[in-house]
Records
---
Amino acid sequence: MTPAQWEALLYDWHNTHRLRRQRDDTPYWTRLTEPHESVLVLGAGTGRVAGALARSAERRVTAVDLSRERLARIPRTPGLHPVCGDMRRLPLQGPHSAAVIPYSTLQLLLTPEDRERALTETARVLAPGGSVHIDVSESFDSRTETDWQLSLAETCPEAGGPVEEWERSRPHADHVAIEKQFRRAGRVLTEVTERWVYHRALDLAEVLARTGFELLGIDRGYGRDSSPHRLVYHARRRH
């Protein structure tokens, strides 16, 4: 198995045992995008959100991710179309009626220029009046420096048994670097480093205004006091 395949497999395994405990986000996205016939999901990964949106209604959902290996793990669902591409240079034309940028994807773009380019591209492929919904987290802002610690231990049948996820945090001026090791029977299967920009460094309302959007509102969490550290920005393409 290649390093990219290990990464995709263990990304999916992590989501199964960690993010899918946070079950209120997929019903939230489903309700939010219900009126839309053509939905774009940027940073779709292995399809956790995009798959739920495609299953909820007869419509076209386009799932964009940089990783072909992650996209290859998306279950085949009618109406769901995986596309390998960079959200800063979308290999798509419009018009889409809505775009979702779920679960802190925008916070993986480390420079203001990259974030502005991604939202400019999002505006380009949306219809006039189309909406964008961006999920970010405040929790990275409070991350402190830590040494290696066990964050998850669960069976992964595709890896041959129990897998452990270990991580340590290294805060920087505008982002936190979270290093991860995935271990099986004492052997490191793969290592990744994720760099998450702090919410306070995003200036998201200003960037939306510069890229042709009107900010409509901000939700805290997904309703019913779920995940209050998360903020979902809602905006509409002006022209």
---
Amino acid sequence: MADDHGIVREGLGALLSAHDGYELVGTAADGAEAVRSAVTLRPDVLVMDIQMPGMSGIDATREIGRVAPDVAVVMLTMFDDDESVFAAMRAGARGYVLKGAAPDNVIRAIAAVAAGEAIFGPGVARRALAYLSGPRPDEPAFAELTPRERDVLNLIAGGLGNAAIAARLGVANATVGNHITSIFAKLQVAGRAEAIIRARSAGLGDPG
């Protein structure tokens, strides 16, 4: 279980202890710790919150899909907006349940993804069906990046250096460096030059 609130972790542990065949083998308070736990503990299912300090649950889910693909991730979150739901699905989450769900629904979701199924709460399922049956909007370039990372990539493609990007966005140089490291990893590029080529080919590069 990965959640930055201890009471949620304790609550899930109590819920699982009341059901035969379930065991909480570890907990994590942030996304990076969740990834490490997935690698070292290899649980059947990792129940993940979305909003956590440092690495988000979405980014952690994507990384777990790369380093521990046998670990099934279920999102247990308060967020039911389209962006969060579809970002989780794209990241590889096999389940998405709201924290207001009945305890039995949480257990059912864990059991389903452990068995190789995908499960989403009723509201989430309706939203997904509406999205899939409706007109498909154009997919934004580099959808795997966060909005801020896309801003940084756009400025990189526009020829700005790290210091200029930091000044433009009003953040520290180190923050820009962290964004760039994440961008390179997500785009799987070797360096700045390759990132610029990718970005400009997608129409980015306007420094504003």
---
Amino acid sequence: MSFCSSKRIRIAALAATAIVLGTQIAIAQEPSIGSQWLNSPTSRVEALAVLQTLNANLLSNASATLTLDRWCAAHKLAPEGSKIVAQRVGGQDKPADEHIRELLTVGPGELIAYRRVRLVCGDRVLSEADNWYVPAKLTAEMNQALKTSDIAFGRAVQALNFTRTNLSAKLLWSPLSEGWDIEGLTAHETGPLTLPPFLLEHRAVLKLRDGTPFSALVESYTDKVLDFPVPRLLAQ
């Protein structure tokens, strides 16, 4: 091998090493997803805007399942093509009380089934939900799927072409302190923004096309709905 060829090989090897080291440094310096929402006024305003966007999306659509499908895909919370699945939570049954029966317009003798689930996209739990529903208003296939599979309720009953009546929507946490719109935003120390486990709570009733109620829901949305990198504007 000639001296020139040997020299070129050494230069190429050094260049490749530099590229690898540079890549490793860049990866090491890239903050984790959990730390990209900063404890700063600008980041807090952005977090509130994103949270209220999700809130509006949920309130304007009949199916929380399909809304979370789209949210998960748009914010890349799971591998491409992932869909919401329901992890059944056992041992926490809550019999329907008088208020639930009134919402579902059923008498004391009519069967109301209960299902508690965690709605998961990929490895992230996006919400936890209590669901009381009237099996007599569903098809046999729907009831079987709800009893034996991890299908989300909204997907299982999608063929009913149901509507949703929202009873309440509560912001369980706000990134901004009360009175910020009058007193202004307070500067915070730099560092990650700490989120509580649950951010939103919705209560709703699902109804057939003729207005007959068949499901009463309490949905609690977790901090994982914001578990994605800070928007580009804040990263610049």
